[in-house]
User: Which sequence fits this backbone?
């Protein structure tokens, strides 16, 4: 999903409070990268925070964007901009440290690339600042693991045999997860999807998934459509570069999954309409003889509170129009706050029933764990 591109803060605004806010955001993202298995980005962001506080090249790059709407994503936009420099051969000294381009990262010195990173920002400041106007678009393929699990659970619970699925996905980015049924999910005692798929989600589940394999039904999609305010064409060189740039360079498994999904997208084009989520959902209706599904993953944080109220209203409308002949389901993989932490939770709402929490997973979707005795999901 991508929000509307942010507008920089007004020129001449007092930078000190804004810069202090940005330093705190960068430090928070550094901790998140460490927790999510990217020592490279954790170390680089720690140095970015220091450079930002000292008024170095990173401060010049972020000037005017320190308190953008959705400022939590600003560090990811900076990292994506520099990764794009690496991927396009514009930062060879830094590429020598980035595993995504064949470089070597010293596990004992994950901050060793910092001088080259800082130099790349300084040398290509207009490039970096242009990328800061763009939303981060990862289109994380691993999250399809949860979306497919929610769909299999919904179909099995209907107990009426296979039913064609009409799939609608707000926040589709490049539309890769519209092809989730073409991915292969694997875990001990469980597998789903084509055995020859170029996208293999290994280690998908810790323990059994919500729907036992014996109850899983074949999937047939009658329709699959997404929306995004700024869609990416995954078949274009620029679109593929954007998706790769927002992956973390020291996580090769994610890169391999994306490469496979890009191959599928080249063979099976999907439709992603260039509109916001609420406008998109206003055009969706249930249809006899099919299961109408709206699914989304890590969408909420990119949608304003005002629009989200409209989104929820449209989803309630669809749930209220659900019938036995024309059922509706909402499948969501979104963070939910628990104290100071965010849990990423799979919820399913079938028709007019309350939403129920089925599973939780790492933010990128792997691995997932079924929740025992899942209960109603809070709104």
Assistant:
């Amino acid at each position: 999903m991508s929000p509307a591109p942010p507008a920089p803060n007004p020129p001449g605004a007092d930078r000190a409070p804004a810069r202090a806010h940005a330093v705190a955001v960068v430090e928070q993202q550094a901790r998140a990268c460490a927790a999510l298995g990217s020592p490279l980005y954790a170390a680089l962001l720690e140095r970015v925070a220091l450079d930002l506080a000292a008024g170095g090249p990173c401060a010049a790059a972020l000037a005017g964007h320190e308190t953008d709407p959705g400022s939590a994503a600003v560090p990811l936009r900076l990292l994506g901009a520099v990764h794009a420099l690496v991927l396009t051969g514009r930062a060879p000294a830094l590429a020598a440290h980035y595993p995504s381009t064949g470089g070597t990262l010293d596990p004992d010195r994950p901050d060793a690339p910092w001088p080259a990173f800082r130099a790349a920002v300084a040398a290509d400041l207009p490039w970096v600042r242009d990328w800061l106007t763009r939303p981060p678009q990862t289109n994380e393929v691993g999250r399809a693991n949860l979306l497919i699990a929610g769909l299999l659970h919904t179909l099995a619970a209907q107990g009426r045999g296979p039913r064609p699925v009409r799939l609608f996905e707000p926040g589709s980015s490049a539309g890769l997860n519209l092809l989730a049924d073409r991915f292969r999910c694997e875990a001990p005692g469980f597998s789903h999807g084509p055995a020859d798929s170029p996208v293999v989600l290994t280690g998908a589940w810790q323990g059994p998934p919500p729907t036992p394999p014996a109850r899983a039904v074949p999937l047939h999609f009658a329709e699959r459509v997404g929306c995004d305010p700024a869609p990416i064409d995954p078949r274009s060189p620029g679109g593929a570069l954007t998706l790769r740039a927002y992956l973390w360079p020291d996580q090769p498994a994610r890169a391999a999954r994306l490469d496979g999904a890009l191959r599928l997208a080249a063979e099976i084009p999907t439709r992603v309409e260039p509109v916001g989520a609420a406008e998109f959902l206003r055009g969706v209706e249930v249809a006899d003889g099919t299961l109408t599904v709206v699914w989304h993953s890590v969408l909420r944080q990119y949608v304003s509170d005002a629009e989200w109220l409209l989104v929820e209203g449209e989803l309630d409308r669809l749930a209220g129009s659900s019938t036995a002949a024309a059922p509706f389901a909402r499948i969501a993989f979104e963070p939910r706050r628990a104290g100071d932490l965010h849990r990423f939770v799979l919820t399913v709402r079938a028709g007019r029933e309350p939403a129920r929490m089925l599973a939780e997973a790492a933010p990128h979707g792997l691995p997932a764990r079924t929740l025992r005795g899942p209960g109603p999901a809070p709104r």
Remarks:
- Residues 15-35 form the longest helix (21 residues).
- The radius of gyration is 21 Å.
- Residues 186 and 317 are 35 Å apart (CA to CA).
